[in-house]
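Hey forum,

I'm writing up a methods section and want to include a predicted complex as supplementary material. The small molecule is flavin-adenine dinucleotide. I've pasted the protein sequence and the SMILES. Can someone with a working setup run it? I'll credit the forum in the acknowledgements.
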Amino acid sequence: MKTQMGFGVKTNTEYGSRTFVYEVEGLRQSETTDKLNNPIRSSGTVYITVPYARMNQEMRRITRMGGKIVSIKTLSEYSQTNGQTTNTGEKTKPMTQAKPKSDKKDVPVNTYRPKNPFIGKCLSSTELVQEGGEGTVRHLVFDLSGSELKYLEGQSIGIIPPGTDANGKPHKLRLYSIASTRHGDNLDDQTVSLCVRRLEYNHPETGERIYGVCSSYLCGMEEGADVAITGPVGKEMLLPDDENATIIMIATGTGIAPFRAFIWRMFKEREQNPDYQFKGLAWLFFGCAYTPNILYKEELEELQRQFPDNFRVTYAISREQKNKDGGKMYIQHRIQENAEELWKEIQKENTHTYICGLKGMEGGIDEGMSAVASQSNEDWSVYQKQLKKDHRWHVETY
Ligand SMILES: Cc1cc2nc3c(=O)[nH]c(=O)nc-3n(C[C@H](O)[C@H](O)[C@H](O)COP(=O)(O)OP(=O)(O)OC[C@H]3O[C@@H](n4cnc5c(N)ncnc54)[C@H](O)[C@@H]3O)c2cc1C
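Reply by user p_vandermeer:
Happy to help. Structure tokens for the complex are below, copy them as they are.
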């Protein structure tokens, strides 16, 4: 029997369970959260287990923290799906991509699974944050020779950090977007590259500095070290085959990883891809805090110089640039500034929009698009639903 809880969410009492699991979305980046030592960053939706008696109280606590409950399930319902345990003891989204949405049949997936990962080697690790920037972001290249691992631009791989978690269990894998094309940075089809930010934040209660398990492991990795790799996974962020498409890419921070792969395939590796000579428009929006945090800046700008008619880059540098109201310049402000042109592009049948990076960034983008769509008497949420159905609106935020 289904019962309706006071807050409009159905729960299933057949299981006789009195424990529920809230699916909570992370905090949105804003000027307030920006005042913290580090930008709020959630590596996936958090699942919180709540006894029946504390449901309302917990809901209020989550709201106070700026979280948003997107679903409530009984524990029995929830436990039918796999969860990933975090260092807080809470569960995050399972380490698979949402829904495979591509019709493409020849997309490699799960060649290596967690029980039988491929052990690759780290070939190089390079710092991407220039002097004066904040945090650590490394570009890592792993050797795949001897493996069966093939991948496409827009897919991710899993990395299993060594060691055990707080419960003494082996660490679960973490997903990372692949930052190289299928040919790899050495163009020999034998490597895969990642763009990894070391997660660091102050514990909300104790103030203690916390470093993420897997991202710290990867960012501290030395050349020659072994690395356990799974995957590839993901069909959400694949590039269309159409050489004349318009590709709009909206990234914050390491969200640029899949777009580096796209842009390299479009403009840098033309000789390697005789069957894909991109002639459309690629427009990258990139958001970060400071100029030294613009990842792959020199290479992007060089490609822009070489392909001025086909490649545009628009930066939103929150701590240096001002939006039209004098506030910090976030990516949503750049979207709003360019909304009319974007709207024109988005209405073309061969335009694909990709969003990758911090969870919560979609909100501002929707606001901008909503305003301009309404000028054409279109309801953005309805329009966007159709774009998603047509596989032309691709989102991967974490
Ligand atoms: C599809 C996908 C692609 C991804 N691609 C990339 C990528 O290209 N590059 C990249 O760097 N990352 C990427 N990630 C994120 C990556 O998978 C890891 O989640 C990230 O590196 C953190 O893992 P960790 O082991 O270092 O952190 P953990 O040790 O697992 O810690 C993470 C936990 O810390 C807590 N936490 C985090 N921030 C805060 C905060 N501000 N305040 C309080 N608590 C906090 C949360 O409970 C969170 O679950 C991707 C994720 C997905 C799902």
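Some notes you might quote in the supplement: The radius of gyration is 21 Å. The CA atoms of residues 125 and 220 lie 9 Å apart.
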